[in-house]
Design brief:
- By secondary structure, this protein is mainly α.
- The protein has one domain.
- The termini are far apart.
């Protein structure tokens, strides 16, 4: 349980600390980079989870790979939702008032 909760905390800390650091540095990402940044973070988190979780002594031997896979899936789900919400909020909307006159 502690490994799962710790993994989710790592995912959220990665997102919030990355955004806070960029704001502190005064860096404003353009639209495609704002969409890609959470997905690139998911790649990094997946590598870290698959590298470190299966060998931890906090889990029984048979739980290592399933827990690593679950955390990798959670990383993609959470980071994907963040990227998707940013896309949904900032997508170009067609103006319905424009006619062919």
């Amino acid at each position: 349980m502690a490994v799962g909760i710790g993994g989710v905390i790592i995912i959220w800390l990665g997102l919030t600390m990355g955004a806070a650091m960029l704001r502190w540095l005064g860096v404003a990402l353009h639209y495609p980079a704002r969409l890609a940044a959470p997905l690139l973070l998911a790649v990094l988190e997946t590598v870290l989870f698959l590298w470190f979780v299966p060998g931890t002594e906090l889990l029984p031997q048979s739980w290592g790979w399933p827990m690593a896979g679950g955390l990798a899936a959670a990383a993609w789900l959470i980071n994907g939702v963040v990227s998707g919400l940013d896309w949904h909020r900032n997508r170009p909307v067609k103006d319905a008032r424009v006619t062919d006159n």
